[in-house]
Amino acid sequence: MPPTSKLFLILGGINAALVVMLGAFGAHGLKAKLTAEMLAVYQTGVHYHLFHALGLLAIGIVATQIADSVWLKWSGWLILLGIILFSGSLYVLSVSGLRWLGMVTPFGGVAFIAAWIVFVIAIVKST
After folding, report:
1. pLDDT band for position 67 (50/70/90)?
2. Are 36 and 74 in contact (CB under 8 A)?
3. pTM surpassing 0.90?
4. Residue-wise over 4-39: b if at least 16 C-beta within 10 A, else e?
């Protein structure tokens, strides 16, 4: 298995496991502690985290075919950055109430958008 494929499959699997744990924590551990608004913020983080964990897995699978693509590697790293900035900021914001973290979230969204654009470029440039 190419190293790029292995890396992003591992990162995707780890993030998928984290999504299940964080989702369960939110549903069972935070439901009684957070306001409905903050619980919705937390769940938004979980949803985007899940979609992009699957994105990392998709990159790992595609990397079996175009392992040497620098564009594909950038796509994976941008998705991981997006998970940290977008979902991470929403997780911390919801449990801490630190509203300024909401300023970080859009940077994660931009990383997600860029990751998917770069993913398309990787596919288009593949031979």
Report:
1. confident
2. no
3. yes
4. bbebbbebbeebbebbeebbeebeeebeeebeeebb
